[in-house]
Amino acid sequence: MEKVKRVLLKLSGEALAGEKHTGFDEETVVDVAKQVKKVVDSGIQVGVVIGGGNFWRGRTSNKIERTKADQIGMLATVMNCVYVSEIFRTEG
After folding, report:
1. Of 82, 88, 81, 76, whose CA–CA distance to 41 is shortest?
2. What is the pLDDT of residues 41-64, one digit of tens each?
3. Cβ contacts of residue 48 below 8 Å, gap of 6+?
4. pTM of the entire predicted model
5. Which residues pair with 11 in a beta bridge?
6. Is residue 13 within 8 Å of 77, Cβ to Cβ?
7. pLDDT of residue 59
8. Would you say 46 and 9 are in contact if contact means Cβ atoms under 8 Å apart?
9. CA nearest to 49, candidates 13, 3, 2
10. Which CATH code for domain 6-90?
């Protein structure tokens, strides 16, 4: 029986921002995609978990309810997922 090799990679939102510390740094994300592609090409399955810290870092205002702050964080994560998946697709 062949063993399946798997890796779970956690990409923080802050890492996606690179030196800018906010939003996306395309050069950084392309570099990550190329590194992940090398791992996948070697036969290892890769699962990716992505954070949203490049857009939202938790509850930053006492005027926003906790549930609304969490919803904003989830939207930041979804934005990162769409962006990163598209960069990964273009890098193969």
Report:
1. 88
2. 999 999 999 999 899 877 667 888
3. 8, 9, 10, 11, 36, 84
4. 0.83
5. 50
6. yes
7. 66
8. yes
9. 13
10. 3.40.1160.10
